[in-house]
Write a structure and sequence with these properties.
The complex is a heterodimer of chains A (201) and B (292). Chain A contains six helices and nine strands, in the order βαβαβββαβαβαββα. Chain A is α/β, with parallel strands linked by helices. The model of chain A has no long low-confidence stretch (mean pLDDT 96). In chain B, a hairpin with a 5-residue loop joins strand 8 and strand 9. In chain B, helix 1 packs across helix 4 and helix 2 runs antiparallel to helix 3. The radius of gyration of chain B is 19 Å and the shape is globular. The chains are: A alpha/beta (201), B alpha+beta (292).
């Protein structure tokens, strides 16, 4: 288990060094994107329209934050991760088209995303679900908000973060997926539990 | 009682619930931290640090400030009961703007977010009539991640409690990392499809230190607690010993042909707070000492 501190834009070579169970802290630009922002970004790509900013080498954060406007400045009040599996249907295309290097969320992602991460060079960093204040503390500046018409949680927020983490590298760029490994163990344990409870599988 | 008072107290419990986790939950998380594996410890440490920081900065412990559900116990002689709903809606709007809370009420047809956590049937209010003149209000702010894995089912009566155990174990395994483990499980059987789920969700309001008064049901709570923690899902589903912090079970009598069962999950950020307003407008905060 190694600890890495990376600054955006992150190169493919740097991201390929990371292995599952490593701990990662990200400094630099990250954008939030949930279901709606993923969908719109991919629509933009399809139509040949540019995104509000280039995401190459950046981190995309599955997060619907609580934001507060103080004067003309936005402040991140609470900004923990949301469940990433909902974005599984978009993420492979998102990684391929926009070259993000780090996907941050909770709960893990599936095979499509794992394969895309191996192919194009990206990792999934699990941030502790609900740890919203720690996350907000690492967000030093809110650069902009894009697509605010989608609503506060679904908009694309552009954050400048400092040592955002700890992120548990749960999917690396070599096809390893910690959540899938845990699921295998859990399935085995389930059989032991059935036996203990006198249940037939 | 005065409607302005009801609104003020509802605002206060919303604020308390969303910032300060109940002591029983904090204690259970600390105990889990002491016993966890390395991966699990990192997660629990982050959770405990975050709880402390939320209290210090008076900010919501999680950015998903939940769907707002009230449980109201209204004395039959309490005044202004017809205005309680309006007061709770106003308090919700005020808390959304001032705490602040994340606007989480979306019209399922249009996809439009109301922006203030209110809308048709939201906040949802569960009413109970008691005798006397007090008004007791409890709020649950229910996270979406843990709501998404709640499971209701109609089991086979002939399989009895064994069938129930399998249903619960399967629900926990299927939920995996999604509900932000370590979670709290609320389980209920009987009544009907809706009744079992309502009871299951309501048991999530009980402190972790409280067990079912019926020793047989309490034993089942303990058994489920033990096997859920044998799954190895662990904190945030990254593997470990702590998958659930506690289990509460309730029931209603069932139709002979039916065996409704429900498993409600709550994330570790179990947000609940209660207060009692007496006829003379004095207020007793039941779960939190009044914190500003």
């Amino acid at each position: 288990m190694a600890v890495y501190k990376l600054r955006t834009p992150i190169s493919e070579a740097d991201i390929r060094k990371l292995k599952v169970n490593d701990v990662l802290y990200v400094t630099g630009t990250m954008v939030t994107a949930r279901d709606q922002a993923h969908r719109r970004a991919l629509e933009f790509f399809k139509e040949g329209k540019p995104l509000p900013l280039s995401l190459e080498g950046l981190a995309v954060f599955h997060c619907g934050p609580v934001m507060s406007k103080q004067g003309d400045k936005w402040i991140a009040v609470a900004a923990g991760p949301t469940t990433s599996t909902r974005m599984d249907i978009f993420e492979d295309e998102f990684i391929k088209n926009f070259k993000v290097r780090v996907v941050i969320g909770k709960g893990g992602m599936g095979k499509r995303t794992t394969d895309a991460m191996a192919k194009y060079g990206a990792v999934y960093g699990a941030f502790t679900g609900g740890a919203a204040i720690l996350a907000a503390k690492a967000i030093k500046n809110v650069r902009s908000v894009e697509w605010y018409d989608l609503g506060m949680p679904e908009a694309m927020w552009v954050f400048e973060a400092e040592e955002f983490g700890p992120l548990a590298v749960a999917i690396d760029s070599h096809g390893n997926n910690l959540f899938t490994d845990v699921q295998k163990t859990v399935e085995e344990n389930k059989q032991r539990i059935y036996q203990k409870l006198g249940l037939s599988p | 009682m005065d409607t302005a008072k009801i609104e003020e107290v509802a605002f206060n419990i919303l604020k308390q619930a969303v910032i300060y986790l109940p002591d029983d939950v904090k204690q259970a998380l600390k105990k889990a931290y002491a016993e966890e594996t390395e991966t699990g410890r990192i997660q629990l440490k982050t959770i405990l640090d975050n709880i402390e920081l939320a209290e210090k900065s008076k900010a919501p412990v999680c950015q998903d400030t939940g769907t707002i559900i009230f449980y109201v116990k209204a004395g039959d002689k309490a005044k202004n009961l017809g205005k309680v709903e309006e007061a709770l809606i106003n308090a919700t709007k005020k808390a959304t703007a001032e705490v602040p809370l994340r606007p989480n009420a979306v019209n399922p047809f249009t996809g439009k977010n109301s922006g203030d956590n209110t809308g048709r049937n939201i906040p949802y209010i569960n009413w109970e009539i008691t005798s006397g003149s007090d008004l007791e209000m409890t709020v649950m702010m229910k996270g979406g991640g843990s709501e998404n894995v709640c499971m209701g089912g109609m089991l086979v009566p002939g399989e009895g409690i064994k069938g129930l155990k399998k249903f619960i174990v399967d629900a926990v395994v299927k939920a995996g990392a999604q509900p932000c483990p370590p979670t709290i499980l609320g389980i209920a059987i009987g009544g009907g499809a809706d009744i079992s789920m309502k009871l299951a969700k309501k048991t999530l309001l009980k402190p972790l230190t409280e067990h079912n008064p019926d020793p047989e049901i309490a034993a089942l709570e303990k058994e489920i607690y033990e096997v859920a923690n044998m799954t190895g899902i662990g904190p945030m589903g990254l593997g470990g010993k702590t998958t659930v912090l506690g289990v509460h079970i309730d029931f209603a009598f069932r139709h002979p042909a039916s065996f409704p069962a429900a498993v409600a999950f709550n994330c570790w950020a179990s947000r609940r707070a209660s207060a009692l307003i007496k006829a003379d407008d004095t207020v007793e905060y039941l779960t939190h000492k009044l914190k500003g």
